[in-house]
Amino acid sequence: MAGATITSRTRGRAGPTSGSTAISFSSAFPSSWTSPALGRRARGLALGALFLAAAAQYGWNAWRVPPLSGYDAGAHAGYLLTLAREGRLPHPLEGWSTFHPPLYHLLASALWRALEPLGARALGAGLQGLSAAAGLATGLAAFRLLRRLGADFAGALVATALVLFVPCQQMAFVMIGNEALAGALSAAALLPLLALQRDPRRAGPAALAGLLAGLALATKYSGAFAALACAVPFLRRDLGRRGLRALLLLLLVGGALALPVYARNLLLTGTPLPILREHEPTRSQEERNVLRPRRATDYLWLSPAALWRPSIYHVRGDSTSELRRNPAMTNVWGLTYASIWYDAFAHRIPTPYHHDRVWSGRLLVLLGLVPTALMLLGFGAALGQALRSRGRSDDAPLVALWLAGLAGFVGFTAWAPSLVAVKGSYLLPLAPAGAAFYARAVARLPRRPRAAALGLSAAAALAAALVFSEGLVFRPQPPGKMAAVWHRLGSQLPTSNIVEAVERLTRED
To answer: Is residue 101 assigned to a domain?
Structure first.
């Protein structure tokens, strides 16, 4: 294959791993990007421009997006107010989102106390800004991971742009909620995990991986994906005593952070993973979005109809109603893809725009097909290499992360038949690994197809950034719409503080 290779290199470091594989390919962009002197400056400017654009767009959205636009934002706000005002952790079954581990809420409640005197606008923007900062950290961790795996600058830059601007990512990065922080911690954990994969006897990376994976588990249940991936470097016969000590250190550090959360859940609820979907008012609210029981066939293909109308409200015609649901979205992977590449649940793009005359959704889901296909091809190649090497390849932990995430996602969506259970944002911790798989697949392309793939992928990231820059393409969601919903739900949970939190976030300064 001209200009593209996957190279194996033997590392000089003594230890159990000496045959790791890294991604390496020549750039499809100007040669100055890879020349020693001018290349460093050009690469630095390009990377800085990408992150400056992301920071500016995130900041704009944090200020302009109504604070209740996020998934369960009103419920998370009630959780924060309970901590900020009463100084206590709510019972896991007390509110709507109180079953979530508390790390994000502890941090955000401190921010709430600091910003509330400045008014509702500053409070909402600050809380959303916390998620934006986590989003930028996720992008930086993804870029560093790609470079350490050997991806060239052009491939790493485009893959990082996708991590930063794919719609489900950037929506999560300006939401009041724990998804962005959990994703950032999981992304950061992959860096020491890569060092452990190359030498599992190192105490420093073991402690750091345990710290970050433990913090991710203390933020959201999806932190389990990264925690399970931490086992991969130690699944070898030649681990030795130093390797066993490193494993023990990882478990002690991670367990010290995460186990108290799950022990408290077990003590108070009888299960380490309490979820409120079987309790009111959550059960009634979600039953409104159940079209029929989930079927095994819903997982066997991706429905083209879901791509053509990428919203649970998008039905044939020029207008839509929240009382109507798109029957194509019973297809799990179709809805997952639509929620990754568009606003399938109308949290940012109001429902009047979810109809056939508005082409932004179709455009984004079509543009997303190229990077998504490459990512899946790269995952297949990485999976095959991990199996052949018996888990010794550099990106074997990333493969394990994906397998754990996809298995958890399938299990959860099979258990919860509601449309709103099929959110692509639940897979946020998989994004940096997906970027690595994308770069792997691009590396295997000949020069011209590689340039085309990178160009189309960059166009997809740019289009998503434009569509989801608040107010640029669509009018914002009416802030009173979600406030009314959370007033109704919060009134059924009188100790949750949801109603008061919503009032504080939406009152006029």
So the answer is: yes
